[in-house]
C-alpha cells in the first residue's frame, strides 16, 4: 500500500501540469500571432511614373502595391483611402517607388511653381521627366562692342515635369520646351530671363531620376 501511494500517476489537476499546459498554449498563440503579423499586407500607392512637385496628383499617376504591414504602418499613402484632391508631391518620386504620406501636400503649400522654358538648342538625352536640371541664362550681346556677360546659373537641381523636344519655333529637329519646378526664391530670376534678352540652357544635375 505504501509503494502504490508513493508512485501514483499525477493528475491533470496538478498545479504544475496546469501551468505547463498554459505555457504551451501561450507559446502556440504567440507563434501564430507573429506569423500572421509577418505575412499580413496592406495596400499603398506607388508611382506609375516619375512624380514631380507642382503636378496635380491623380489616380492615373499611381499603381497599387501590396506591402508588409509590419514595415509600413502609417508611413505610406494608403490605397484604401480616398486620394487627396488638389495635392502634389514635395519632392521627386521615382517610378515604382512607394509614395510616403509625408511627401503629399496641398498644391498651395508648395514653395514654387512649374515654369515652361524654351531651349534653342540640343538638350542632353539624360534629361527626361523626373530628371533634375540646372538652368543657365546667357544674356544676349548688346551695345556697339557686342560684348556679352558671362552665363549665370539661375536655378539649381530643378525637377523636370515634362519635356517636348524638336520645338518647331527653333527649326526642324532643334530645340525643346521643358517644364521645370522652380523654387519660389528663384522665380524672379527665371521670369526675368524669359523676357527675350537671354538665351536659356539646361544641363543634367546629379541625382536625376529619369523615367523608365
TrEMBL record:
Lineage: Bacteria, Bacillati, Actinomycetota, Actinomycetes, Micrococcales
Protein name as catalogued: SAF domain-containing protein
Pfam families: SAF (PF08666)
Domain SAF: 42-105
Organism this protein belongs to: Brevibacterium metallidurans
Amino acid at each position: 500500500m505504501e509503494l502504490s501511494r508513493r508512485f501514483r500517476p499525477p493528475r491533470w489537476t496538478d498545479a504544475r501540469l496546469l501551468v505547463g499546459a498554459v505555457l504551451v498554449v501561450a507559446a502556440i498563440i504567440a507563434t501564430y500571432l507573429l506569423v500572421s503579423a509577418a505575412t499580413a499586407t496592406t495596400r499603398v500607392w506607388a508611382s506609375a511614373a516619375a512624380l514631380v512637385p507642382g503636378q496635380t496628383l491623380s489616380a492615373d499617376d499611381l499603381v497599387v502595391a501590396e506591402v508588409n504591414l509590419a514595415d509600413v504602418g502609417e508611413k505610406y499613402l494608403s490605397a484604401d483611402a480616398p486620394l487627396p484632391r488638389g495635392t502634389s508631391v514635395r519632392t521627386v518620386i521615382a517610378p515604382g517607388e512607394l509614395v510616403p504620406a509625408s511627401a503629399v501636400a496641398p498644391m498651395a503649400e508648395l514653395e514654387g511653381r512649374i515654369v515652361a522654358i524654351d531651349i534653342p538648342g540640343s538638350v542632353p538625352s539624360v534629361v527626361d521627366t523626373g530628371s533634375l536640371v540646372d538652368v543657365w541664362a546667357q544674356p544676349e550681346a548688346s551695345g556697339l562692342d557686342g560684348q556679352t556677360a558671362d552665363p549665370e546659373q539661375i536655378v539649381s537641381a530643378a525637377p523636370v515635369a515634362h519635356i517636348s523636344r524638336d520645338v518647331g519655333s527653333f527649326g526642324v529637329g532643334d530645340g525643346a520646351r521643358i517644364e521645370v519646378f522652380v523654387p519660389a526664391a528663384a522665380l524672379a530670376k527665371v521670369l526675368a530671363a524669359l523676357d527675350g534678352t537671354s538665351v536659356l540652357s539646361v544641363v543634367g544635375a546629379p541625382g536625376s531620376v529619369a523615367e523608365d
